[in-house]
Structures are given as C-alpha cells and as structure tokens.
Specification:
The complex is a heterodimer of chains A (about 100) and B (about 600). Chain A is α+β, with helices and mostly antiparallel strands and about 100 residues long. Chain A is about 40% helix and about 25% strand. Chain A has a three-stranded antiparallel sheet with strand order 5-1-6. Chain A has a three-stranded antiparallel sheet with strand order 2-3-4, covered by helices on one side. Classes of the chains: A alpha+beta (about 100), B alpha/beta (about 600).
Chain lengths: ~100, ~600
C-alpha cells in the first residue's frame, strides 16, 4: 500500500488513521499510529476539505483550477506528488 | 553504545567557538551556521532535557539526587542516537556516591577538553557574569564552587560542580575511565588548522583541510559577533552586553591589575605549569552543593498520621482520600473519587508497554520509581499506591505526588494537564504555560499581588468542554526564596516544600478555591535575552504545535491510550482560545513592568 503510485482516476479520501482539526483556516493533522503532527498551508487545507468525501483526483484538480490561478499540468503534478506523500504516511486512503 | 563526545571546559574557554566550528563543519551549506542552532546544542546540565527524558520535574529534587540520575539520562540519549553526539559540559569530572563517574563511561567515546589561560578566563568570565573581577577570581580559586548551585532559586540548568579553575582542569586530567583530548584555546588561535584537525580526528570525524579551513572562516570571531549583533544569542547570560567579546589571547593585561594576576598565579601555578602557561621557573609563557539534608525517619512521621483517621481532600475537581494528613490542601467530606494508600508494590508479572528510566507504563497502569523517596503505582485513574522507602522524607513523597503522579492519574481520567499555572479574572481562567524555571509560579504570584485570583500552580488541568474548564489545583504556590524577595514577600513562618530546598509553600485563600473556570486565554512563557518584553498572538497550526510542547510527553500519553483525547482537548483549545507568546523580562528593575503588561493584556482581552 505504501508503494502505490496514484493516478488521476483514483478516488481518495481521509484515512481512519488520522484526526484532523482546522484552526484559523489551517488544517492540523495527527497520524494516530505515528503520533506525527502535520500543519497544512492554505491550498493543502483546501485539498483536505475537498477530499473529506471520496473524490476522484481528476475532479479535485478541476475544482482547484476553478478556484486558483494555476496551470492544469502544474496542478496535476503537484497534487499527485502531495497525495502520494499523504498516502505514504497513511493519512489518506484509496477507495 | 559509546557515541558521546563531551565538549568539556571551564566556562569562557572557547567551548562555544569550538561548537560554532563543529556546526559549520557538519553543516553542508555555504552560509555560516546560525549561532543559535549550534551543534552540541544540548548542554549536559540542561534541565529541559533531564525533565523530558525522565518525565519528572528536577525542580523538586535535590542536586545530589539529580546527579545520580544524570548518567541515566545520557545513556538513554546515547541509545537513541544514530550518530556521534557532541554534548557541551561545564561540570568537573566527578564521581557519584556509588563510585560511578557522573559522565557515563559506557556511553562515552571520549572527551575534548578545552582550556584557556586562567588570566584570560577571569576578565571574560567577569564580563559574562556581569560581576567584579575580584569576585570571579574568588570563584576560580574556590574548590567547592558550582554553577547554578544555589538552592534559593531555579535556574534553567542543573547544578554543575566546577571546583575552581585548577580543580576543574585536574579532575579531567585524572579522568581515568575515558580518553580525554586536551586543546588549549591559545593553540586554537595560533595554530588553528593543526589544532582543530587533531581534535576532530580524535572525535572520529574525517574532513579535508579545505573543509576545516572553510568552517573556521565561517566562525571567525568577527562573524560570530556580527551574528550576535543582528540576531542576539540565546546562550548569553541575561545581563551581559556581548557574549563574543574579544576572543584574543593575553588580553588580560588590559583588564587585570597586577595584584589580581598575582593571586591567580599563586593559586593555579601547578596546573598552569602542567599545560605550559608557566615555564619551569614559574614565568608566564604567553605574554599576552547542597548539604546532605538531615532526614527524619519516615516511620516516625507516619505513625503519627496513622493514629488518626484517613483524610479526604479536594484536588482538580476530585475528592481524594489520603493515607496521611496534608493540612495545606482543602478538606472535604464528600464521597471519594480516588483513594491513595500505603502498601508495598510488587509488579514483577506485569508486561509493560513502555519502560523508561524512572517509569513504566501501559494502558491504565503507571509505575514511577524515585530512588530514595518512593514508588508510586497509579491505576485506572482510581487508585494510587505509594511504597515509601524507609528513610524517605514525607514532604518529598508529597511533592512527587502533586506532580507528576496526580498528573498521570488525571490523564488516565481523560483530562489533559499542561505544565503551567492559571489565574482567574472576572470568572474566567487564563493559563500561563511554561517549562521548569520559566517563572510560572512567580508570575502567578505577581498577578496575585495585582488582584488576580490564582487557580492552580505547576499543573493547568483542562477537560474537553468547549471552551475547556480549568480545574482548581492545590491552594498554595511553591515559590523560590529569590522570587519572594523580588516580590517583596517574606518567607518568615512559611514551610519549605521539602528540607534542603529554598522553595516555600505560600498559602492562597482556600475559600475561593473550589470551582473550575472556563478557559479564556493561554500565554506561553518564553524566557530569552532580548532587552524587552512583549506579547505576540500565535495563529493557525502553530497554535496547536506550540501548545503541545507543554503537555506530558507524547509517547507516554500514547502508551496510556489517551492520544486521541490529548488531540481533542488541545484542538478545542487551539481553535477556541486566543494563544499568545509572552516574553517576559527577568530582571529586578523591569519585571514589575512586564507583569503589569501581562495583567493589562488579560484585562483587555476580557472586555
């Protein structure tokens, strides 16, 4: 599971192995097993909110392009690498 | 594992310079390393490292008890380290009562001992301590001298025995169990490449001459001084203007009188000759504890209390039955939630999930062992069993019970204790969170003088309401003699928290002290060397991260199965309560102003 590489057709959502909370618009996350804490910036916090319900990565990207001034290719690369990191730390799960 | 290299020295002998060099050598970037993030950044005497590793508060222990635990702390750090650990130390090489060295041999790869002509140490040390050179000379001549050894207040470092300049050098010269590499400050100045190369080779590091020269350049005195001027330096003593002063060899001639130089020469000629500061004819070659406390037998004290019925007291919203009287607490007749008893503890068959130096833990069960005092077994948030050592001081037993023991019980009950005190203003609670020695009790006392009511000292205990409720602690403050003097309070007639500590039980009004109050503000105390005090709000996830620094350690709370509860209470707090960093100035001229400033901020935020 940790080595899976995500593609834009995959559907992701929050995993069970984390608890998160939002403070002044920034998301703070704790991995329950690891005890590690994560602080998210504005965009990552937005992504986190969108994937609260299971969401296809392609529609997540569509949503971000509408909200932020960003190039589709760039957005896709960044989102996939970020989500892969989150998956590696078991913070999100693959549906 | 033998992986610690001690960077040992008498103060002001080039230790910081050496660590700046190491930081630059091990730091892979082009720009000079930040002087506030030096390698070997942890000092052997750090109170914070000690407290965090052991999970107990060193401020409640006597200096000799702490010394017995210090080797264990460093063995633990050594076990957890992947690489060579460089640790700065100003302690002399001494032995504990059990004949073991203070510096644990089994964790030590070796020591680099830095020394400097005592005639140059004296003016530099005087500047560092903002005191007269004559006083420093007396210190350097005093074989019983120690650093941070006054029991009248609490410093951020543990007591370190220095034993005078000669005594210090000699102790390391006679350190038989470990390899010691001696480095003279004067050689670091005059022959830097050879001197530093030999030292790092001794430590087992391999670097090219170019790398060594580059690191030396980045930590030249000029650069360290420039950095200090623009950013400040956290290791500087609070009163002094500049830490990186001259860095010159034989600058003593401008600062010492002839008589002062003579006194130093008379007292230190032997060690000065040993290290070639004096030749055989005695000419200069460079022209340039706390007393053991008398403990009353515990049995006698206990017999007195056992003749009387058990007594119940209120603490953190609980009714607790005690096996001895604790007159300073608030009595209650209500049904007990928790009972404390005296029994012998036998835990041999228990499989622990976590074992540390002083404690063992698993879900619902925690065992704390403090040598010379007692063992405490805490069960399911309901019961505490105390197994007291035969000659222990009952006051010490009570002190450990108040923290950390009751704190652990509260965690088992789903509450979250923070290290801090709390005060009440207009029915709402304001928390002052800080580690040992950051002045949380002192500030609470200062606020009390300005009309605030103190709700708790040392532990600030929150539940999971929104906003969280803060529970009333014991109805007294534990204040160091020095702090009381500063506040103009007398310790006449007050009882010390235990024999041997000049920390006193300062009673609060018991009748005001029975209701929890909703939390309305959190101040994180930070002590620093800047010449000003300020209050700065934190935002976003920083709120949460900083807040968690002040709870009991994370692995322990996890083992106890309370990690989600900790997260929940901390996030409610971070989300709903303003959290501010409060930098306060600890000097006798302006501390009142900084307390006023805090009082003002609490009153304004209440509006």
């Amino acid at each position: 599971m940790a080595s899976t590489k995500l593609g834009i057709n995959d559907i992701v959502t929050h995993s069970e192995d984390q608890v998160s909370t939002e403070i002044d618009g920034e998301v703070v996350l704790m991995g329950i097993e690891s005890g590690n804490y994560y602080g998210f910036d504005e965009i990552l916090s937005r992504i986190w909110n969108i994937i609260e319900t299971p969401t296809a990565i392609s529609s997540l990207i569509d949503q971000l392009i509408q909200e932020y001034d960003v190039d589709r290719n760039e957005c896709e690369t960044d989102v996939l690498s970020t989500l892969n990191e989150l998956l590696k730390d078991d913070l999100i799960s693959l549906q | 594992m033998k992986n610690i290299v001690w960077l040992a020295s008498y103060p002001k002998s080039g230790n910081t310079w050496f660590r700046a060099f190491l930081a630059n050598l091990l730091h892979e970037k082009e720009d000079p390393a930040d002087i506030n993030q030096l390698g070997g950044g942890s000092i052997f005497s750090s109170r914070l490292i000690f407290d965090n590793t052991l999970g107990i508060q060193s401020s409640d222990l006597l200096a000799d008890e702490i010394d017995q635990l210090r080797p264990e702390v460093y063995k633990k750090l050594s076990e957890n380290a992947i690489d060579t650990l460089f640790i700065k130390a100003h302690d002399a090489y001494t032995y504990l009562p059990n004949k073991q060295p203070l510096f644990p041999t089994e964790a030590t790869r070796g020591a680099i001992y830095l020394l400097r002509n005592p005639l140059d140490v004296a003016p530099s040390f005087a500047n560092h301590s903002s005191c007269e050179i004559d006083n420093i000379i007396r210190t350097m001549n005093n074989e019983n001298d120690s650093f941070c050894g006054h029991s009248g207040n609490l410093a951020n470092q543990l007591r370190q025995q220095l034993r005078g300049w000669s005594g210090h050098v000699e102790s390391w010269l006679n350190a038989e169990q470990i390899d010691v590499h001696f480095v003279r400050y004067e050689d670091m100045k005059s022959r830097p490449l050879e001197t530093f190369r030999a030292a790092i080779q001794f430590a087992g590091l391999n670097h090219t001459d170019d790398e060594i020269l580059q690191a030396l350049d980045a930590c030249s005195f000029k650069k360290l001084q420039q950095q200090e001027q623009s950013n400040g330096f956290r290791e500087k003593a609070a009163k002094v203007n500049n830490f990186f002063r001259k860095g010159e060899v034989a600058s003593w001639q401008d600062s010492l009188s002839l008589n002062q130089a003579k006194i130093l020469l008379q007292n230190h000629s032997q060690m000065m000759q040993q290290f070639n500061y004096l030749d055989n004819q005695g000419n200069l070659t460079f022209i340039d504890d706390i007393p053991q406390t008398s403990r009353q037998p515990i049995l006698k004290q206990l017999q007195i209390s056992q003749q009387k019925p058990q007594a119940s007291y209120q603490l953190y919203g609980l009714n607790i039955t005690f096996p001895f009287h604790f007159e300073e607490l608030i009595k209650t007749d209500a049904k007990a939630d928790v009972s404390i008893s005296l029994q012998s503890i036998n835990c041999q068959n228990i499989i622990w999930e976590e074992e540390s130096i002083c404690y063992k833990a698993k879900q619902g069960l925690y065992l704390l062992s403090i040598k010379g005092i007692a063992r405490y077994l805490i069960k399911d948030g309901q019961e505490i069993i105390i197994d007291i050592e035969p000659n222990a001081d009952l006051d010490a037993v009570k002190l450990m019970l108040l923290s950390p023991v009751i704190g652990i019980l509260l965690i088992q009950r789903g509450l979250l204790p923070f290290w801090g005190s709390s005060v009440i203003h207009q029915g709402k609670a304001y928390a002052l969170l800080g580690h040992s020695s950051t002045g949380k009790s002192f500030l609470a006392a200062g606020l009390k003088q300005k009309g605030f009511q103190v709700l708790s000292d040392n532990l600030c205990v929150l539940n999971n309401n929104t906003p969280p409720l803060v529970y009333p602690g014991y109805p007294f403050l534990m204040l160091w003699q020095r702090g009381m003097l500063r506040l103009g309070e007398s310790h006449d007639g007050l009882k010390p928290v235990r024999k041997g500590l000049k920390k006193y039980i300062y009673p609060l009004n018991k009748t005001q002290h029975n209701k929890p109050a909703p939390l309305a503000g959190v101040y994180l105390l930070s002590s620093h060397n800047k010449e000003e005090f300020n209050i700065e709000p934190l935002t976003g996830f920083q709120n949460m991260f900083k807040l968690l620094d002040f709870t009991y350690n994370e692995p322990l709370i996890r083992t106890m199965g309370m990690i989600k509860q900790r997260h929940k209470i901390a996030s409610i707090t971070a989300k709903t309560i303003p959290i501010k960093r409060y930098c306060y100035l600890d000097n006798k001229d302006s501390f009142q102003q900084s307390i006023d400033f805090l009082a003002q901020d609490i009153k304004l935020s209440a509006k």
